[in-house]
């Protein structure tokens, strides 16, 4: 990779991480306890599918650190909890791009359904990885907020499992629209 292209990947990653962070300020509670949409998964997914999982994970890490610094100040208790709630899950979300080459190949061949299939599997992997980290944080650090008589394991599963499902549904719908209406968003590189 040339120095110019490396810089372009980094700048593009910073832009998408910033966009993901900006979307954190859009109301995103589903109305059921703490089940939330993470709208930032969409721009992070676009970037991860454009550039691959490693740059996607780096952009996710930046998003997680921004979220921690800008929104998490009241919920930072110890190093392990901080890692499980912020840098790790957001970085793992970059795994959405794990099949980026297959997606690009399918899109170039105008095989929309195949591309969406690869995107769906990648999105589910990244989304599941993100909420698995949040799940363990919920068990070990947030379980004290479980309703009386409910285990921390079940409480965290309900909250984080609900968020995983809500984001999976949203992601598949949005990426189905992108594949049909804006496929070049996933294949072309932005000029910087």
From TrEMBL:
The chain crosses the membrane at residues 7-26, 80-100, 112-133, 153-179. It comes from the Bacteria. Gene3D superfamilies: 1.10.1760.20. Keywords: Membrane, Transmembrane, Transmembrane helix. The keyword Transmembrane helix applies. It holds the Pfam family Thia_YuaJ. InterPro entries: Thia_Transptr_ThiT (IPR012651). This is Energy-coupled thiamine transporter ThiT. It comes from Lapidilactobacillus gannanensis.
């Amino acid at each position: 990779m040339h120095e110019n292209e490396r810089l372009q990947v980094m700048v593009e990653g910073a832009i998408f991480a910033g966009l993901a962070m900006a979307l954190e300020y859009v109301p995103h509670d589903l109305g059921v306890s703490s089940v939330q949409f993470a709208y930032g998964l969409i721009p992070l997914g676009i970037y991860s599918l454009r550039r691959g999982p490693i740059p996607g994970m780096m952009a996710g890490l930046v998003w997680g650190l921004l979220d921690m610094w800008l929104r998490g100040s009241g919920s930072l208790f110890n190093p392990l909890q901080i890692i499980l709630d912020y840098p790790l899950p957001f970085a793992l979300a970059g795994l959405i791009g794990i099949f980026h080459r297959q997606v690009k190949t399918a899109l170039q061949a105008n095989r929309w359904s195949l591309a969406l299939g690869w995107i769906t599997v990648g999105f589910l992997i990244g989304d599941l990885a993100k909420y698995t980290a949040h799940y363990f944080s919920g068990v070990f650090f947030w379980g004290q907020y479980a309703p009386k008589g409910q285990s921390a394991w079940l409480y965290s599963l309900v909250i984080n499992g609900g968020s995983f499902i809500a984001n999976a549904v949203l992601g598949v719908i949005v990426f189905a629209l992108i594949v049909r209406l804006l496929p070049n968003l996933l294949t072309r590189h932005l000029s910087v």
